[in-house]
Design a protein that fits this description.
The structure is a single chain. With 140 residues, the protein is an alpha+beta fold. The longest helix has 17 residues. Strands 1-2-4 form a 3-stranded mixed beta sheet. Strands 3-5 form a two-stranded antiparallel sheet. Strands 6-9 form a two-stranded antiparallel sheet. It has one domain: OB fold (Dihydrolipoamide Acetyltransferase, E2P) (Beta Barrel). The radius of gyration is 15 Å and the shape is globular.
């Protein structure tokens, strides 16, 4: 029943941590998918499906279905925030907290030109977060 029957309600997204060769979670993505994309999602992800969380994925969250980090999607968000749930840059800004993408939205672009290790890294997210803080402090 419903628009997402037979597909996935949301995808747990991650950024690559090149220092540890791990993928650290950044958000749960459920917005921005059109009907056609939702229909194709199970087929597109079929080859990456796993019985348990992949060893290279660091997550505090449990997923109904796990996938190897193989596919890169382009995601936009309102801002980066400190999160007690996500593991990207965990402990860097605040003990026990990582960075998360607030209000994530799929742009519609499958980045088939990039491998998962080539996508935005944890280090780049940290740089974006710090840059965002500087802009916020500079605003009246």
């Amino acid at each position: 029943r419903g628009k997402r029957a037979g597909s996935y309600g949301a995808l747990l997204m991650a950024a690559y941590d090149e220092e540890t060769d791990m993928f650290r979670t950044t958000c749960k993505l459920g917005t921005g998918f059109d009907d056609e994309t939702l229909r194709k999602l199970p087929e597109k992800l079929k080859g990456a499906r796993q019985d348990r969380r992949p060893a290279r994925v660091d997550s505090k969250l449990e997923a109904d279905v796990w996938f190897d980090p193989e596919i890169v999607l382009e995601v936009r968000g309102a801002e980066l925030t400190v999160s007690p749930v996500h593991t990207a840059a965990a402990g860097t800004i605040r003990p026990g907290a990582g960075l998360a993408i607030r209000f994530p939205r799929f742009t519609g672009r499958w980045r088939e030109d990039k491998g998962p290790e080539d996508a935005t890294t944890v280090k780049e997210l940290l740089g974006m977060y710090r840059s965002q803080l500087k802009r916020t402090k500079a605003s009246p």
